[in-house]
Amino acid sequence: YRVWQRSVPIGGNHFTKALTKELKLTFAKAEHLKRNASSAEDPKAVFQAMRPVFSDLLTELNRSISYFTTLDRTAKLGRVVALGNTMKLPGLRRYLSQNLGFEIERLENYRNLVGPQVVTAPVFKDNTLAFGVCYGLALQGLDMASLRTNLLPKEILRERLISRKKPWAVAAAAILLLGWGVTFASYFMAQKAVAAQSARGTPITWSQAESQAKQAVAQADALRKQVEEAKAEYDKYFEIGQHLVGNADGRLLWLELLCAINQALPRDEGEPPAEIQRRRSLIIDNIRCEQVEDAARWYQAMVEKQYYRPIGGDSVAAPQGDTGQSGQEAMPGAQGAAEAQQAAASPISGRAWIVSISGHHFHNLPEHGTSVGAQYVRDTLVKTLETGKVRLPAGQGQPPQELTYKELGVYFPSLVAPGNIEDVELKIPATLQDAEASKSSAAGKPGDAKAMKVRKFDFLVQFCWKPVPLSDRTQRRSSEPSAQAQ
């Protein structure tokens, strides 16, 4: 905290003189009346006579408070302490407190002052308020209190501060000048090095070097433009060639795909069994094709749902035990995370065809073991599309080509959402029934259909097909021997 002090040139004698003047009294009687104003015959007249002095004192205190608040507008006055025997005047502290808005405190004693003979003396007690200045000067003289008031003018203080900082300012300016000098010297040396080259037999100025650089850039831009034009012309003729070749190869693409799907179906060796459930066959109901702009989305869906299973992973077997009843095929979610990571290592993107093969089969007898339901489809059609080979015509006068399904453009065959094996009744037309069985049937009539219970499994196989024309396959095969020879 800070202490602001102000000496007010109004004391007790001013009140005494006011009484002497207004009431026509001697100085001694006026002094006695001032000290005992509350017990006078007419106290109101006494205080009325001293009112001008009260007003002057209040004005001086207001001026002092206004002056101190202008020095620091953020400061807040905590308390006001009044010194001097004038404060012993009855009613003066209450009058000042009411008009100033601050509580006026009266000094009763000095807490750190010792000496019983002096402190307890009646004269000292009567004049306690008058010893404040003397007590403060004594503390300063004994170096027990510090006075921070500086009467030195601000102009002189500013001049001294500037004079002390002048050497540092000169040193900073010298350092900056030295830095600028070093920078200028480095640029000058670099320019001088360039000028020295012209004196060593290579007279090339900066303007000439810039001109040559601009010419080189312009020439590079012209060559780049020629390259782009040549590339655009090449792309145009290449597209024309693709259309010409595509007209010949495009007629064979769908025929080759249907032939490849037909060769991927399982078949019985020799004569097929008479009972349909013992035949190694898949019955295709329909084939649908859909062109997509980005095959990566389809592939990602197959991997996330674990419909695509790379060949070589652990296959999911049918439930053991009651294989003669309608068993439930294990869901694709049972496949391990290792197979999904292995499948994710072979991404595919770009435009392609998604081929969907839907059908059913009756290869679900208990004697077939685990090769029933979905597993039978994976072991036959899906496995052949993944790792098998197909023989296709290579053109007129050429022997058939044997190539893998990947060379044909078939990727990632997947069994989509496999269901369960169901017991159904299969109606066989009379025209397809065995002749002896139809003759021995006494109750049958011509044209009646025979119903038999079979175990049926419906499936949906999808794969991604990026057509590879015959000309491209022939070109790739012809380039392989030359690459191996090198």
In terms of structural class, how would the helical and strand content be classed?
alpha+beta
Cα gyration radius (Å):
58 Å
Mean pLDDT score, rounded? 80
Largest sheet data = 5 strands, antiparallel
Low-confidence stretches: 313-336, 438-444
Number of discrete domains: 3
> What are the secondary-structure elements, in order, as H or E?
HHHEHEHHHHHEHHEHEEHEEHEH
Question: Gist?
Answer:
The chain has helices spanning 12-23, 27-35, 43-71, 92-100, 116-119, 122-126, 132-141, 154-199, 206-264, 295-304, 337-344, 373-387, 405-408, 435-440, 470-485, and strands spanning 80-82, 104-106, 283-292, 352-361, 389-392, 401-404, 410-415, 422-428, 450-465.
Task: From the structure above, extract its key features.
3 domains, Nucleotidyltransferase, domain 5, alpha+beta, five-stranded antiparallel beta sheet, 486 residues, 9 strands, 50% helix
Describe this structure in words.
The protein contains 15 helices and nine strands. The strands form three sheets. Strands 3, 4, 7, 8 and 9 form a five-stranded antiparallel β-sheet that branches. The chain has 486 residues and is an alpha+beta fold. The protein folds into three domains: 12-153, Nucleotidyltransferase, domain 5 (2-Layer Sandwich), CATH 3.30.420; 154-204; 243-309 and 348-435 and 449-479, no CATH class. The longest helix has 59 residues, at 206-264. Mean pLDDT is 80; it is low at 313-336 and 438-444.
